[in-house]
Amino acid sequence: MALSSPGTGSSGTSAASGSTGPSGPSGPSGQSGQSGTSGSSGTSGTSARPTRGLLPLLLAGNTAMYALYIGVPGMLLALQIEEIDPAGKVANFGLVSGISAIFATVFNPVAGALSDRSGRRNPWILAGGLLALPVMLLLGGVHTILLVTIAWCLGQAVMNVYQAALTSVVPDRVPVAARGKASAAVGLGLPIGSTIGALVGAAFSEHYRTGYLVFGAIVAATAVVFTVFAREERMPAKAPLPVKEQITAFGSALKDHDFRWAFIGRALLVLGYFAVAGFQLYILKDHTVLPAGLTAEGAVAILAPLTAVAMVVSTVLGGWLSDRFDRRKLFVGASAALAAVALLIPAVSTSWTAMLAFAVVNGLGFGCYMAVDTALVTMVLPKAEDAARDMGVLNVANAGPQIVAPFVASLVVSLSGGYTALFLVAAVLSVLGALAVRPIRSVR
């Protein structure tokens, strides 16, 4: 899974998490640029009337996706790896997360291109969603790090089939005038899905094999509901963009001064965020002093809703204030700096109170950053006619750091012997991300 920018087709869902996503959190990892390009003309999105009830279906579809992306790598996968090799859990988790993120980044554009060429989204959403169930069953039944890696790569494959098609629905079916609402529906899937993922993961922490099945069932059921009620018309098939042209487009966009600095700032902030987010369970187990009777899994179930609420509040408030004062750089820089401050809290204190404060402050900073920075990026795109393509380029700044983050985090923890250094490194990256917006000239 990759954190990405809203409203840009396959190249952009809304912000992620905390795969926490360790990919997803790692969240999980690339987005397809193909479908985003296909929607750039707006022919389908502007002329077609959206299916009645499409926005709640988009919310449900993205919520299910983020629930799996947060609950599986952020909780169940970490527990499974710890059970297999307790002494090497940090290095092994970094290895599994990194390899699967690379796999997802490569596979997502392929899945997007296949759905583009078929002219359909629903069959791919349904296929990816239904296949999540047997793949989660497989993942829960393996007992070596190698097989866990292979099984989770398969999980990333089927989820990226689902994700690539789902994120193309907005530009395909939603008129331009309604895309703000659609992006909000997509965006709300992250905090809601993160909360559900953390709660379900915590509930099945002692029976993670059953937990895998529950997440697979959630995605499968949601895929069925979405494809039954969100009817679609076959669209003209689209030829995939050749790899050489994609590479040329990437280099062309980064030649623009302002866009390049926006790209660098996003990459630094995302790297710092996911370096910590991916190892949250291990941090709670090995770094934080939890109250008597509170397990690390239970702590995740408390922290996730706090972060989610803070993200929702700061996303709405930050976007509104940046519009009101017409100051994007100020809010982007301030929110990145706030994220850095949040990371210092658990670095100087191992208390449970410090982690609670970190969850709230980090959610406020990251939510505001993603909302306002996305708006800033749309204002520094090199060419209006290449907007969808260039937003796809920006998503490299989302997906790439998520690939690197597990390796960086495991290396820092292994060399330093603890998590304090990881928080400090992540804070420095956030500060650099805040400073990166200063050279931007065309936006206040």
Strands, helices and their partners?
Elements: H1 33-38, H2 43-47, H3 54-84, H4 89-118, H5 122-140, H6 145-166, H7 169-173, H8 179-203, H9 208-229, H10 243-254, H11 257-277, H12 280-286, H13 296-325, H14 328-348, H15 352-379, H16 387-416, H17 420-435
Helix pairs in contact: 3-4, 3-6, 3-8, 3-9, 4-6, 4-16, 5-6, 5-9, 8-9, 8-13, 11-15, 11-16, 11-17, 12-13, 13-15, 14-15, 14-17, 16-17
Region (Disordered): 1-49
InterPro entries: MFS (IPR011701), MFS_dom (IPR020846), MFS_trans_sf (IPR036259), Tet-R_TetA/multi-R_MdtG-like (IPR001958)
Organism: Streptomyces exfoliatus
Structural class: mainly alpha
Helix-strand pattern, N to C?
A: HHHHHHHHHHHHHHHHH
Arithmetic mean of pLDDT: 82
Radius of gyration: 20 Å
User: How many structural domains in the coordinates?
Assistant: 1
Determine the number of helices (DSSP H or I, runs of at least 4 residues).
17
Distance between the termini: 32 Å
Give the CATH class: Mainly Alpha
Instruction: Please identify which CATH superfamily we are dealing with.
Output: MFS general substrate transporter like domains
- Assign the CATH topology: Growth Hormone, Chain: A
Going by CATH, the architecture would be Up-down Bundle
Taken from the alpha-carbon principal axes, the silhouette is globular
**Residue windows where pLDDT falls under 50 for at least 5 positions:** 4-48
Oligomer: single chain
Helical content class: over 70%
Q: In what range is the share of β-strand residues?
A: under 5%
Q: How many β-strand runs?
A: 0
Major sheet details: none
Pfam families: MFS_1 (PF07690)
Subcellular location: Cell membrane
Membrane topology: Multi-pass membrane protein
Keywords: Membrane, Transmembrane, Transmembrane helix
